């Protein structure tokens, strides 16, 4: 693997999942592979799981890790070409990406969307600029429109826990007080399209996601109908896509989308976390036997580790 | 040891101090013990000594260390049970503690008190929530009411420097412009109650500490009388406990509590640091031959190291 | 080497450059030297290159590294002697430096100037206080008036790329919207005075640097004349020195100092970065074949590594 910025970088998903599961059983099998190699993790936004799991993954492979909170530790970056930099940006991404490449063997980047400028967000200007200008491989730790490490952890989790050959997986929207990105939903949809699952997306009318992502996946506006006989229910809020970044006025029909034991039935409850209790999902579901959110979080380590391993094997 | 959140977790203090002193002489004797083990240090507040000494201690044991400033790096945590999380907290401690446990072998936490809500502070809701929900051992790097790593370093220091079998140790209040926690004083008192010392507490009337902490330790309101023939004088400010978190109007009698050479006499001067010069103590004392504050700081490493060692030895 | 706070700490520059180039060819040759040694890097200001290159350098030598952003992670420091610390500073540098020395084998410090108080900046009170009170060697990661790690990287770069025995090197001022320190210019001048180069400084009248730094180096106010036949053009803005820390009203003659392809000719373009594109230098120069800024940044690793190596060899 030359980089991991989106699901398109995966050539053989089943092989990748199999290797991740082997790493989970034997995390230190490749601890010589990353020796004298350095992962520089750049955060433009907050992170808990991604930060800790990716650091652990790199460490399991013997890599050294540097974590930088870019906004507070370094200089404000300019991403536009040809700008006269006489205002508040101090360094251009062209230099920053090339310079960091002098000190890193792999660069991982987290950069959330603006949720105000759709075209800018969809250009993925931060991560794509790193890809363009860095001379080392780039890993996406959640960008404006994609969270491929999360999606791979989700694929590992579903593979581990599936009790039938072709489980029914439902992605359900749930309410949230703030405007959230589409990245997790987008990458989960893309991942389900690569897997042998019976996949349905459900959300209130008006919360349609990008058609280029949804493609021919089934969209069912009736949540109860969508959840019927589900094996896995992946719950996630996203803000409006058409009316970009907006949270539509919450109506009773929206608050009714909160996942309850009754709605979940015998399905497994999945969520990328952090999750707002009693807004997205009830305490009872989260604390119940069908919640697999902690195992999903655990699989973040092996998702990151298999990606870093694959990139390390292709260095030089 | 299964955790170290308070002095109650110590079963054999003399043995612990002896082991710490052995580690001080031979810091790398156990550097295989922590191999492939990760300490995640979570800071909800500032730290210098605790941060650097605990990281060094873990590193001496061969552990990997991750440091997170939780407030700036991650998500705002909810600690209340049953809340509808539709406001400013993004993640519940139930998930956070379980998730971090997926990436850590030991979790260390620093979380200061509010100093405005006595009941909340005394519930030790942050550290006790980590103990309740995490699946790995918890170490207290100073909580609302206790600083047991500091107290253990202090015990090591007194043991090293005592010139008689049962030294006289005095804990003296000193003035400070801001409201400070009771944690250091509480843990020092608890530690002295476990040691074979002649122990006296002295402070102005009105600055009485929690009776459940002081128990039957001697309280002498006359500072001069208390300091007479002392071998060790541990100086520390704390804010009011009854009138919780308040700094009472400073009077001449309060400013007179500043420790001077004359008051100290031939006793050793101890302080946990940071210390305000010429408020808590004069320059002359701090820079003089009887100050042992730097050795106390040095012993923070071996205090943390013996605790981590003891916990590592009990990990499966 | 006992410390590296300024160029005066260099005894044999040619030997140091030669060793740095050997480390560049064989970065892990001394990875046992720093085993069980810890570098504590203290940042009072932002950093990208210095932070990443110094961490990599220390790691190449087998050292453990702790990075602290002092302002946000720790306590506000007092530097004045004899102060009554009843205001906003919580810890005196005397304690802080001695305490950090308990946990570090080498301490590296970045602390920019105020640019408002010339006497205070020139006293180098931060770095000189660390030198005075710490019990371990101090490395300057850019102080109020000096950036000796950058200057050494620059010396390595010029040595590597020079095509003649005595190349012509020009330091040229360039415009910038904000007030910048003199540190990089000062240390570059000092370094050129130690090297066998034909050196010229050029800047608009009124931007004269400290005479104690410039000494008898050639100053040519006509930029075109200065740049004629140059082999290396080092470009850098600095704020006014006489009218301390001020940016004089920008005039046409100032904006004309921006480095262009025409001005540069066949010379190599050098800059310490971060650089403001189309203010300091045109896109065309920075993206062109004569820019060596990325190689300069790469050499920051070996500049730091040779200094740390030299200090480690002199420990104990």
Strand order, sheet with most strands of chain A: 9-8-7-10-11
CATH superfamily membership of the largest domain in chain A: Aspartate/ornithine carbamoyltransferase
Q: Give the CATH class of the largest domain in chain A.
A: Alpha Beta
Strand runs of chain A, count: 11
Spans of at least 5 consecutive residues with low confidence of chain A: none
The fraction of residues assigned to DSSP E strands of chain A is 5-15%
Main sheet overview of chain A? 5 strands, parallel
Mean pLDDT rating of chain A: 96
Q: So what's the oligomer here?
A: homotrimer
Secondary-structure content class of chain A: alpha/beta
InterPro entries (chains A, B, C): ArgF'-like (IPR043696), Asp/Orn_carbamoyltranf_P-bd (IPR006132), Asp/Orn_carbamoylTrfase (IPR006130), Asp/Orn_carbamoylTrfase_sf (IPR036901), Asp_carbamoyltransf_Asp/Orn-bd (IPR006131)
Catalytic activity (chains A, B, C): N(2)-succinyl-L-ornithine + carbamoyl phosphate = N(2)-succinyl-L-citrulline + phosphate + H(+)
Function (chains A, B, C): Catalyzes the transfer of the carbamoyl group from carbamoyl phosphate to the delta-amino group of N(2)-succinyl-L-ornithine to produce N(2)-succinyl-L-citrulline. Is essential for arginine biosynthesis.
GO molecular function, one term (chains A, B, C): ornithine carbamoyltransferase activity
């Amino acid at each position: 693997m030359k980089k991991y910025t989106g699901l398109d970088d995966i050539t053989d998903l089943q092989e990748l999942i199999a290797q991740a599961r082997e790493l989970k059983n034997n995390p230190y099998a490749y601890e010589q592979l990353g020796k004298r190699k350095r992962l520089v993790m750049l955060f433009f936004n907050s992170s808990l799981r991604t930060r800790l799991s990716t650091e652990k993954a790199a460490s399991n492979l013997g890599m050294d890790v540097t974590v930088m909170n870019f906004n507070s530790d370094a200089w404000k970056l300019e991403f536009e070409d040809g700008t006269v930099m006489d205002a508040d940006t101090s360094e251009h991404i062209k230099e920053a990406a090339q310079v960091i490449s002098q000190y890193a063997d792999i660069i991982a980047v987290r950069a959330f969307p603006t949720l105000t400028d759709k075209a800018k967000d969809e250009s993925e200007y931060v991560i794509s600029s790193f890809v363009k200008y860095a001379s080392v491989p780039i890993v996406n730790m959640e960008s404006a429109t994609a969270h491929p490490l999360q999606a791979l952890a989700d694929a590992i989790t579903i593979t581990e826990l599936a009790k039938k050959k072709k489980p029914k997986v439902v992605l359900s929207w749930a309410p949230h007080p703030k405007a959230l990105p589409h990245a997790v939903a987008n990458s989960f949809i893309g991942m389900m399209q690569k897997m042998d699952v019976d996949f349905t997306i459900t959300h209130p009318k008006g919360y349609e996601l990008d058609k280029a992502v949804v493609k021919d996946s089934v969209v069912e506006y009736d949540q109860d109908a969508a959840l019927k006989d589900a094996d896995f229910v992946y719950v996630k809020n996203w803000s409006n896509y058409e009316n970009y970044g907006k949270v539509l006025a919450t109506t009773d029909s929206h608050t009714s989308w909160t996942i309850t034991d009754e709605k979940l039935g015998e399905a497994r409850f999945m969520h990328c976390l952090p999750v707002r209790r009693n807004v997205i999902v009830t305490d009872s579901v989260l604390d119940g036997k069908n919640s697999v959110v902690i195992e999903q979080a655990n699989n973040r380590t092996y998702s990151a580790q298999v990606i870093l391993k694959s990139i390390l094997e292709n260095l030089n």
